[in-house]
Amino acid sequence: MSVNPARKRPYVGLVAAAVTILALAFAPGATATAWAGMLRGMSVSVVIDAPHDTEYQIDLVATESVATATGDEQRLYVDIRRCVRTHCSVIEHAQRPLASSDISVDPAMTSASLTTLISGLKLHVNATWSPVDRASEGISTPGFGVYPLETVAGGPNPRVESDVNATGTVSIGRLMCGSKTVDVYTYSGVDRVGDDVRDPRKSGVSWPRALLTALGHSQCH
Fold this sequence. Notes:
By secondary structure, this protein is mainly β. The protein has helices spanning 15-25, 195-198, 209-215, and strands at residues 35-50, 54-68, 75-84, 87-97, 103-105, 111-118, 121-128, 132-133, 138-139, 143-147, 151-152, 155-156, 159-172, 175-191, 202-203, 219-220.
Protein backbone atom coordinates (compact mmCIF):
# COMPACT_ATOMS: atom_id res chain seq x y z
CA MET A 1 0.00 0.00 0.00
CA SER A 2 1.63 3.22 1.21
CA VAL A 3 -0.46 5.94 2.67
CA ASN A 4 -0.79 9.27 0.94
CA PRO A 5 -0.97 12.14 3.49
CA ALA A 6 -3.73 13.75 1.44
CA ARG A 7 -5.92 10.70 2.19
CA LYS A 8 -4.98 10.39 5.83
CA ARG A 9 -8.14 10.15 7.87
CA PRO A 10 -8.84 6.58 9.13
CA TYR A 11 -10.85 4.01 11.55
CA VAL A 12 -11.58 0.67 12.91
CA GLY A 13 -14.65 0.65 15.21
CA LEU A 14 -17.10 -1.40 13.20
CA VAL A 15 -15.21 -4.64 12.80
CA ALA A 16 -18.09 -6.37 11.05
CA ALA A 17 -18.25 -3.62 8.43
CA ALA A 18 -14.50 -3.80 7.90
CA VAL A 19 -14.56 -7.56 7.47
CA THR A 20 -17.36 -7.24 4.93
CA ILE A 21 -15.38 -4.66 3.00
CA LEU A 22 -12.33 -6.90 2.93
CA ALA A 23 -14.29 -9.93 1.81
CA LEU A 24 -16.12 -8.12 -0.97
CA ALA A 25 -13.43 -5.83 -2.29
CA PHE A 26 -10.17 -7.74 -2.16
CA ALA A 27 -10.74 -9.90 -5.21
CA PRO A 28 -8.43 -11.41 -7.86
CA GLY A 29 -6.93 -8.88 -10.17
CA ALA A 30 -5.28 -6.69 -7.54
CA THR A 31 -1.73 -5.59 -8.26
CA ALA A 32 1.31 -6.64 -6.28
CA THR A 33 1.14 -3.35 -4.36
CA ALA A 34 -2.51 -3.77 -3.39
CA TRP A 35 -3.16 -3.72 0.33
CA ALA A 36 -5.95 -4.91 2.62
CA GLY A 37 -6.14 -4.69 6.37
CA MET A 38 -6.28 -2.42 9.37
CA LEU A 39 -3.85 0.23 10.60
CA ARG A 40 -3.51 3.13 13.00
CA GLY A 41 -1.47 6.23 12.43
CA MET A 42 -0.83 9.92 12.87
CA SER A 43 -0.14 12.92 10.66
CA VAL A 44 1.17 16.37 11.51
CA SER A 45 2.62 19.38 9.69
CA VAL A 46 5.25 21.82 10.91
CA VAL A 47 6.90 24.90 9.46
CA ILE A 48 10.54 25.77 10.17
CA ASP A 49 11.47 29.42 9.68
CA ALA A 50 15.03 29.84 8.41
CA PRO A 51 17.13 32.91 7.56
CA HIS A 52 16.87 34.82 4.27
CA ASP A 53 13.05 34.67 3.99
CA THR A 54 13.18 30.88 3.77
CA GLU A 55 10.89 28.34 5.37
CA TYR A 56 10.62 24.57 5.27
CA GLN A 57 7.13 23.05 5.26
CA ILE A 58 7.25 19.48 6.58
CA ASP A 59 4.40 16.94 6.42
CA LEU A 60 4.85 13.76 8.47
CA VAL A 61 2.68 10.63 8.34
CA ALA A 62 3.43 7.50 10.38
CA THR A 63 1.45 4.26 10.27
CA GLU A 64 1.29 1.28 12.61
CA SER A 65 0.10 -2.10 11.34
CA VAL A 66 -2.73 -3.71 13.30
CA ALA A 67 -3.87 -6.57 11.05
CA THR A 68 -3.05 -7.03 7.38
CA ALA A 69 -4.12 -9.50 4.74
CA THR A 70 -1.46 -8.60 2.20
CA GLY A 71 1.67 -7.37 3.92
CA ASP A 72 3.00 -5.01 6.55
CA GLU A 73 2.08 -1.32 6.47
CA GLN A 74 4.25 0.31 9.11
CA ARG A 75 6.04 3.25 7.59
CA LEU A 76 7.08 6.87 7.88
CA TYR A 77 6.20 9.26 5.05
CA VAL A 78 7.93 12.63 4.74
CA ASP A 79 7.22 15.54 2.42
CA ILE A 80 9.36 18.68 2.59
CA ARG A 81 8.88 21.89 0.62
CA ARG A 82 11.46 24.70 0.66
CA CYS A 83 9.87 28.10 0.21
CA VAL A 84 11.74 31.34 -0.48
CA ARG A 85 9.23 34.17 -0.23
CA THR A 86 6.39 32.94 -2.45
CA HIS A 87 8.30 30.35 -4.49
CA CYS A 88 8.15 26.76 -3.16
CA SER A 89 9.79 23.57 -4.41
CA VAL A 90 9.58 19.96 -3.20
CA ILE A 91 12.93 18.76 -1.86
CA GLU A 92 11.85 15.49 -0.23
CA HIS A 93 9.07 13.03 -1.08
CA ALA A 94 10.06 9.77 0.56
CA GLN A 95 9.10 6.84 2.79
CA ARG A 96 10.79 4.19 4.88
CA PRO A 97 9.77 1.28 7.13
CA LEU A 98 9.31 1.81 10.87
CA ALA A 99 10.25 -0.67 13.57
CA SER A 100 7.46 -1.74 15.92
CA SER A 101 9.26 0.10 18.73
CA ASP A 102 9.23 3.40 16.77
CA ILE A 103 5.49 4.04 16.82
CA SER A 104 2.62 3.46 19.21
CA VAL A 105 -1.01 4.48 18.66
CA ASP A 106 -3.61 3.72 21.32
CA PRO A 107 -6.61 1.76 19.95
CA ALA A 108 -8.95 4.41 21.40
CA MET A 109 -6.83 7.14 19.73
CA THR A 110 -6.25 8.85 23.10
CA SER A 111 -2.48 8.89 22.60
CA ALA A 112 0.13 8.43 19.91
CA SER A 113 3.91 8.64 19.81
CA LEU A 114 6.68 8.36 17.24
CA THR A 115 10.41 8.28 17.95
CA THR A 116 12.95 7.55 15.24
CA LEU A 117 16.27 8.77 13.85
CA ILE A 118 16.59 10.65 10.55
CA SER A 119 20.06 11.71 9.42
CA GLY A 120 21.32 11.12 12.96
CA LEU A 121 18.74 13.45 14.53
CA LYS A 122 15.91 12.21 16.72
CA LEU A 123 12.43 12.91 15.40
CA HIS A 124 9.85 12.76 18.17
CA VAL A 125 6.09 13.27 17.96
CA ASN A 126 3.84 12.92 20.99
CA ALA A 127 0.08 13.51 21.03
CA THR A 128 -2.85 13.07 23.42
CA TRP A 129 -6.62 13.40 23.04
CA SER A 130 -9.54 13.25 25.45
CA PRO A 131 -13.24 13.13 24.60
CA VAL A 132 -13.89 15.51 27.53
CA ASP A 133 -12.59 19.08 27.45
CA ARG A 134 -12.08 19.95 31.12
CA ALA A 135 -11.90 23.67 30.42
CA SER A 136 -15.22 23.93 28.59
CA GLU A 137 -16.75 20.71 29.99
CA GLY A 138 -17.64 19.90 26.40
CA ILE A 139 -17.57 16.43 24.85
CA SER A 140 -16.12 15.61 21.45
CA THR A 141 -16.36 12.41 19.44
CA PRO A 142 -14.12 10.97 16.72
CA GLY A 143 -14.90 11.72 13.10
CA PHE A 144 -16.25 8.63 11.42
CA GLY A 145 -17.03 7.48 7.90
CA VAL A 146 -17.83 4.36 5.89
CA TYR A 147 -17.01 4.49 2.16
CA PRO A 148 -18.05 1.15 0.59
CA LEU A 149 -18.20 2.36 -3.02
CA GLU A 150 -15.56 5.07 -3.20
CA THR A 151 -12.76 4.87 -5.74
CA VAL A 152 -9.50 6.76 -6.09
CA ALA A 153 -7.22 7.04 -9.09
CA GLY A 154 -6.70 3.58 -10.49
CA GLY A 155 -9.34 1.54 -8.68
CA PRO A 156 -11.67 0.92 -5.73
CA ASN A 157 -10.73 2.10 -2.26
CA PRO A 158 -13.53 0.92 0.09
CA ARG A 159 -12.76 1.70 3.72
CA VAL A 160 -13.93 2.50 7.24
CA GLU A 161 -12.26 5.53 8.81
CA SER A 162 -12.15 7.47 12.07
CA ASP A 163 -9.89 10.21 13.42
CA VAL A 164 -9.45 12.75 16.22
CA ASN A 165 -7.63 16.06 16.43
CA ALA A 166 -5.12 15.47 19.21
CA THR A 167 -2.80 18.01 20.84
CA GLY A 168 0.88 17.27 20.53
CA THR A 169 4.47 18.35 20.18
CA VAL A 170 7.10 17.74 17.51
CA SER A 171 10.86 17.89 17.95
CA ILE A 172 13.68 17.47 15.45
CA GLY A 173 16.99 17.16 17.26
CA ARG A 174 17.07 20.08 19.71
CA LEU A 175 14.49 22.08 17.76
CA MET A 176 11.12 21.96 19.52
CA CYS A 177 7.89 22.88 17.78
CA GLY A 178 5.17 24.27 20.04
CA SER A 179 1.68 22.93 20.52
CA LYS A 180 0.52 21.20 17.33
CA THR A 181 -2.68 19.60 16.11
CA VAL A 182 -1.94 15.94 15.34
CA ASP A 183 -4.43 13.91 13.33
CA VAL A 184 -4.62 10.49 15.03
CA TYR A 185 -6.60 7.92 13.08
CA THR A 186 -7.59 4.33 12.47
CA TYR A 187 -8.28 2.79 9.06
CA SER A 188 -9.75 -0.48 7.83
CA GLY A 189 -10.09 -1.13 4.13
CA VAL A 190 -8.72 -2.17 0.79
CA ASP A 191 -6.62 -0.37 -1.79
CA ARG A 192 -6.49 -2.52 -4.92
CA VAL A 193 -3.91 -0.28 -6.62
CA GLY A 194 -1.71 0.97 -3.79
CA ASP A 195 -0.25 4.40 -3.30
CA ASP A 196 3.19 3.02 -4.15
CA VAL A 197 1.90 2.89 -7.71
CA ARG A 198 -0.37 5.92 -7.50
CA ASP A 199 2.14 8.15 -5.71
CA PRO A 200 5.70 6.80 -6.06
CA ARG A 201 8.15 7.88 -3.35
CA LYS A 202 11.88 7.63 -2.85
CA SER A 203 12.82 4.76 -0.55
CA GLY A 204 14.74 6.05 2.46
CA VAL A 205 14.18 9.30 4.36
CA SER A 206 16.81 11.93 5.10
CA TRP A 207 16.83 15.58 6.08
CA PRO A 208 18.12 17.66 3.14
CA ARG A 209 21.48 19.35 3.77
CA ALA A 210 19.98 22.83 3.52
CA LEU A 211 17.48 22.00 6.25
CA LEU A 212 20.16 20.52 8.51
CA THR A 213 22.18 23.72 8.11
CA ALA A 214 19.14 25.82 9.02
CA LEU A 215 18.11 23.82 12.10
CA GLY A 216 20.71 25.43 14.34
CA HIS A 217 19.28 28.93 13.95
CA SER A 218 15.61 28.41 13.14
CA GLN A 219 12.20 28.61 14.74
CA CYS A 220 9.50 25.97 14.41
CA HIS A 221 5.74 26.32 14.50
